[in-house]
Every structure is written in C-alpha cells, then in structure tokens.
Design goal:
- The protein is α/β, with parallel strands linked by helices.
- The protein has 2 domains: about 1-205 and about 440-485, P-loop containing nucleotide triphosphate hydrolases (Rossmann fold, 3-Layer(aba) Sandwich); about 215-370, P-loop containing nucleotide triphosphate hydrolases (Rossmann fold).
- Helices cover about 40% and strands about 15% of the residues.
- It is built from 19 helices and 16 strands.
- The chain has helices spanning about 10-20, 25-35, 50-60, 80-95, 110-120, 130-135, 155, 160-170, 185-195, 225-240, 250-260, 275-285, 320-330, 350-360, 370-390, 395-410, 410-420, 460-465, 485-490, and strands at about 1-5, 25, 40-45, 75, 100-105, 125, 145-150, 175-180, 200-205, 215-220, 240-245, 265-270, 295, 310-315, 340-345, 365.
- The strands form 3 sheets. Strands 5-6-4-7-8-3-9 form a 7-stranded parallel beta sheet, sandwiched between helices.
- Strand 14, helix 13 (about 320-330) and strand 15 form a beta-alpha-beta unit.
- Helix 10 runs parallel beside helix 15 and helix 13 packs across helix 14.
- It is elongated, with a radius of gyration of 25 Å.
- The two termini are about 40 Å apart.
- The model is unreliable at about 440-490 (pLDDT under 50).
- The structure holds adenosine-5'-triphosphate and magnesium ion.
- This is DEAD/DEAH box helicase.
- GO terms for molecular function: helicase activity; hydrolase activity.
- Keywords: ATP-binding, Helicase, Hydrolase, Nucleotide-binding.
- Its EC number is 3.6.4.-.
- It holds the Pfam family Helicase_C.
C-alpha cells in the first residue's frame, strides 16, 4: 500500500486528492507517478477502473506553471465522452493548484471552442480529429506543451487513429514527455508506441488476468434470433441497477433500444451517428439513473467511468479480445463488483476461446434463462414494490375497498391480480432485431481466412500492406480479429 504523501505530491494536489476521497494510491499510480515525475516517458498498463487517469493526470498537473497562460499539457482520447470525463477528473485534481483544463472535441461549436481556447487553458483534453482541425487553423498553439498523453494508447495507435496521432505529435516540441496508458497493449502496438517515445519506462501492473477479478464473467450460447428474448429474460431476473448492452452496429443498437422500450424497460441507445447533444443527454440520463439500460456501440467501450453499472451484456461478440476487456471494464470499477455476460452464437465459439486465452480469464457457461424464470424475476420485483408500499404504512384510504374485495374473492386471487398489474407480459410484445453477420471465426494455426472468402473483417488492414497483416511476433493471427477500424471509429 502506498499513500500519496509517499509519492512526493505537492500540497495543493494532496488537498484535491483528499477532497476526492482518494486515500491510497492504486498500484498503477504508485508505480508510474514517481517515474513520470522524474521526467521519464512512460507506458502504463493496468486493468480497467484502476485509476490510470490520475496516474497520468497528477504528474502532468505537477509540471504546470499556472503563471503561464499557455497550453502545457495535452491529452488525446478516442471519444468525445471520454475527453469530457478525463478533463473533469483532471480539473478536480488540479483545481486547488489553479490549473485550467479544457475539453475540446468534435460536434462542439467551433467558434465557442476557439473563444474558450483564447481564455488560456493549461491543459487541453481532445479527440484527435478536432485537435488536428485546431492545429491546422492555428487555434491551438503547442509550442509550450511539455507533456503529451495518449489515453487508451493502443486504440489511439491502431488503424483508425495512428495517422492522426503521428500528425499531432509532429506538432509538439520534441523534448516533450510522452505518457501512454491503457488496460491493453498488444505487442505490435507497443512496438509502434516505443518508436514515438524516448526510452520509455514500461510499467505493467502484474495481475494473473487482464480483466479485474471482481467482474463475474459468463457466456450464454444462443443463436442470434433468440438473443433479444434472452436479454430481456436476463434483465428481468437480475434487475440490474444500471446495465450496458454492447452491440456491433448502430442499426442494431437502435433496434435493441427500441425493442427494450417496447417491452417496458427504460433504455436508450448511444452511437456515433447521434448528434453530440443527443449523445450527451443519453449519457447524462444514464448516469443519473433515469435510463437504466444503455445500448451502445464501441463508442462507449473505453474509459467511461459510470458508477452504478452492475451489468455489462455483450449482445454481440466484440471484435477482438482487447475490446472485450474494455467493454466489460465498464463495470467492476474502483473495487466494486460487476457481472459480464457474453452472448455467443454457436458459430462464434472459437472467439470465446481466443478471448479466454488472451485475457487469461475463464468465462463460465451459463444456461439461458427460461421464460418462467424471467416471469418469476419480474414478480419478485413486483413483490418488493408491494412490500415496500406496505412498510410505508400509509394505506388507510385503500383499506375499505380492499376489505370489500376480500368479501367476494379469496386473498390469493386478489394478490395475484395485483402482481399481474404490476408486471408486464414482455412476450406480448414481439421484437425482432435485424440479423447480424457472425464475425469470422479464427481458426487455429493462423489460417488466412481471406482465402476462404470472408473479406468483411479485414478491411484496410488486409489490403493496405502496412505491415499489419499476417501473424505478429507472438504468433497470434490478429487479422480475423480486427474489423474495419477506420470506418468504425467513433466521430471525434
Ligand atoms: N487512488 C484512488 N482511490 C480511490 N478511487 C480512485 C483512485 N484513483 C482513481 N479512483 C477512481 O476510480 C475510478 C476509475 O478510475 P479511472 O477512470 O482513472 O480508471 P482507468 O484505469 O482509467 O480505467 P479504464 O481502463 O476503464 O479507462 C474513478 O472513479 C476514479 O475517480
Ligand atoms: Mg481510463
């Protein structure tokens, strides 16, 4: 256990940490903060929800000279929502010191953003596309930037973003300090990373598994057309506080969200085709519990820290094991427990084994919940509602009518009717989700699946010849596991 005071953190930041309720440093913080404060470039890898934001945030804030009204720290993150969240956390950490932090992302009014930039933030947290826009317009000056951070570094150095990142880094003085953080860091990406850095210190918090222990992981083998009923049954039985359902396409996200609403759940979808205003309002409703089920594409897979997420459903199998790690990492954060359920079609079973192998975790088989169990689950919730109402003890005005009913009917029938009124017969509302192509199953031995005619999941990676095809040095054929990232990337 390491306390923050052992890490030579200055008083103003110590005060912020105290205010935030952080008592001890997490392992990634304990290991990387001293290295970064000594000025080293750092690659930090640690499980989801273990405080990587503060691990790079604290040393960056330490180096800010608040008297200079110039951008000195730059953080790049893959999605708008994450940029906002990271900016908020850095703001909390740096507030007492007087550090000004600004999130900058696409979908935000350009003029307003330029005005805010003129106001002299010390740290900018940006998505790559919008940041490049500003660099080209010279509305962001980087000559005083001494610290550059790539949050979700492996994602930022992957197909969809790598060119943007190279362009961004070219604009930052060479004597900068570069910090890269993520829960996952495939070897080939680590190699790209080290080329962009100066003698980076690599810190990997040692754990048996890549996923956090306190997430209970299981899978249900289910054909695509039964996934939706399986989902609603599971939701009825488990009554999650907040749940995230990940699906592969925007279309399916919309359909699942609408289907859930039709069956009486409070659900909303989030994906890159929505306006920024809509994305924010959906996420805010989810954060404050007005929406209980968030249906999302991978736009919500990385970094988002929403307390109260008890369940993550992989309605569709993620495109690679890393994505699985990030998706399920939306629950079980900061020591809390969570449950992750993966729906897998019989054809995709091969992917399950790959996920288990890469993440070194065991995903246990779960029998699909039956309609009867779901009905019982729903009734259980109705019973809880009734019990709570009884406990409140303000039923006087109903008692006379209640006694009258009991003169004509037996008590079991009356309560059964009340339960029926309090529950929704979900199956009365049929929902069909347009089918998704199963993702290509990786074959053992690294066989080139393209030859078997399955082109869909190779995209530019397979065609571009940018040293990304074939096996990597660890012998793992990654080709089948990457979709067209470039086309898939969230709007930034
Ligand atoms: N030392 C600490 N003590 C208590 N809580 C902490 C500490 N450090 C961070 N947290 C809290 O833990 C939560 C997770 O932190 P954070 O979002 O930085 O995780 P992460 O490692 O970046 O996860 P991901 O890989 O999903 O991005 C946040 O709510 C954060 O405020
Ligand atoms: Mg993070």
């Amino acid at each position: 256990m390491t306390t923050f005071s052992e890490l030579s953190i200055s008083q103003p930041i110590m005060k912020s940490l105290e205010k935030m309720g952080f008592e001890e440093a997490t392992p990634i913080q304990a290991e990387t903060i001293p290295l970064a404060m000594e000025g080293n470039d750092v690659i930090g890898q640690a499980q989801t929800g273990t405080g990587k934001t503060a691990a790079f945030g604290i040393p960056m804030i330490e180096k800010i000279d608040t008297k200079q009204r110039k951008i000195q720290g730059l953080v790049v993150a893959p999605t708008r929502e994450l940029a906002i969240q990271v900016a908020e956390e850095i703001h909390r950490l740096g507030k007492i010191k007087g550090v000004r932090t600004l999130p900058v992302y696409g979908g935000q009014h350009m003029e307003r953003q330029i005005r805010a930039l003129k106001d002299g933030p010390h740290i900018v947290v940006a998505t790559p596309g919008r940041l490049l826009d500003h660099l080209r317009r010279r509305t962001i000056r980087t000559d005083s930037v001494h610290t550059a951070v790539l949050d979700e570094a492996d994602e930022m150095l992957n197909m969809g973003f790598i060119d943007d990142i190279r362009d961004i880094l070219k604009n930052i003085p060479e004597d900068r300090q570069t910090l890269l953080f993520s829960a996952t860091m495939p070897k080939e990406i680590r190699d790209i990373a080290t080329n962009l850095m100066k003698n980076p210190k690599e810190v990997k918090v040692k754990t048996k598994e890549m996923t956090v222990e306190n997430i209970d992981q299981s899978f249900i083998e289910v054909p695509d057309k039964y996934k939706f009923d399986t989902l609603t049954n599971h939701l009825d039985i488990n009554a999650p506080q907040l749940a995230i359902v990940f699906s592969r396409t925007k279309k399916r996200v919309d359909e699942i969200a609408e289907g859930l609403q039709a069956r009486g759940f409070s659900a909303e979808g989030i994906h890159g085709d929505l306006t920024q205003g809509k994305r924010m309002s959906v996420l805010n409703k989810f954060k404050n519990g007005r929406v209980e089920v968030l249906v999302a594409t991978d736009v919500a897979a990385r970094g988002l820290d929403i307390s109260g997420v008890t369940h993550v459903y992989n309605f569709d199998i993620p495109q690679d094991p890393e994505s699985y790690v990030h998706r399920i990492g939306r629950t079980g954060r900061a020591g809390r427990t969570g449950e992750a359920i993966l729906f897998i079609t019989p054809r995709e079973i091969g992917h399950l084994h790959l996920i288990e192998k890469v993440t070194k975790s065991k995903i246990k088989r779960m029998v699909p919940p039956t309609n009867q169990e779901a009905r019982r689950g729903q009734q259980q919730i109705a019973v809880e509602k009734l019990t709570k109402t009884i406990e409140k003890d303000d039923l006087k005005s109903y008692q006379e009518t209640a006694s009258e009913i009991l003169q004509d009917h037996d008590s079991v029938s009356v309560i059964a009717a009340a339960l029926k009124l309090l529950t929704k017969e979900r199956r009365d509302t049929p929902v069909s989700i347009s089918s998704a192509q199963p993702i290509s199953v990786k074959r053992s031995g690294g066989r080139d699946n393209r030859k078997s005619g399955n082109k869909k999941f190779y995209g530019k990676r397979g065609q571009g010849g940018r040293n990304q095809g074939g096996r990597n040095q660890s012998g793992r054929n990654r080709k089948g596991n990457f979709q067209k990232r470039r086309n898939n990337r969230p709007n930034s």
